[in-house]
Design a protein that fits this description.
Layout: E1 24-31, E2 40-43, E3 46-49, H1 51-61, H2 63-66, E4 70-77, E5 81-88, H3 128-147, E6 160-165
Helix pairs in contact: 1-3
């Protein structure tokens, strides 16, 4: 199949005009690739995390170590997805909060290309997307190491969110 840009293009599901690095509470849902039940099972109405589920839990709890401006609220890890609330407590603009954290810095070219004029390339530093990329990357690497399956996708692309801006 040849690529037809009029038919094959991804639409952003983010709120148009919302700055995802600004303070606010963000309810996120992240799903596993092909909805595989990787993180455990529900037994008698209770979620029982397996090793991959425990890795996801620890990676989630480590988010504030990589992004000190992010505060965690509730998290629920299900067999094939994660629900969590992240509160961004200060403006997400500026330098990465952790030196050497490549996922907390802008990637790609910094000049505007003709196809994306007026839009920056890469992920905005310290934004919700930077946080989710970091979480998913670290969790994937640790999960794949534990199960001996290098370069195996763990997550589906993107994530879903509901925004509660700070007033």
């Amino acid at each position: 199949m040849t690529h037809d840009p009029d038919k094959h293009h991804r639409q952003s599901i983010r709120l148009k005009g919302h700055d995802y690095a600004q303070p606010g509470a963000y309810f996120v849902t992240i799903c596993t690739r092909d909805r595989q039940c990787l993180f455990g099972h529900v037994v008698n109405g209770e979620m029982r995390l397996n090793e991959a589920g425990q890795i996801a839990q620890r990676c989630w709890e480590d988010i504030p170590h990589h992004f000190p401006h992010a505060v965690l609220d509730a998290v629920t890890i299900m067999p094939n997805h994660v629900h969590g609330i992240i509160v961004i407590t200060e403006s997400g603009r500026g330098e990465a909060s952790v030196p050497g954290n490549s996922l907390g810095t802008r990637t790609g070219r910094t000049d505007a290309s003709p196809l994306r004029e007026g839009r920056p390339n890469g992920t905005q530093p310290r934004s919700l997307s930077a946080i989710m990329q970091n979480f998913k990357s670290i969790c994937t690497r640790k999960t794949n190491t534990a199960r001996g399956a290098p370069a195996t996708p763990v997550w589906q692309r993107g994530f879903y969110e509901h925004v509660h801006p700070v007033r």
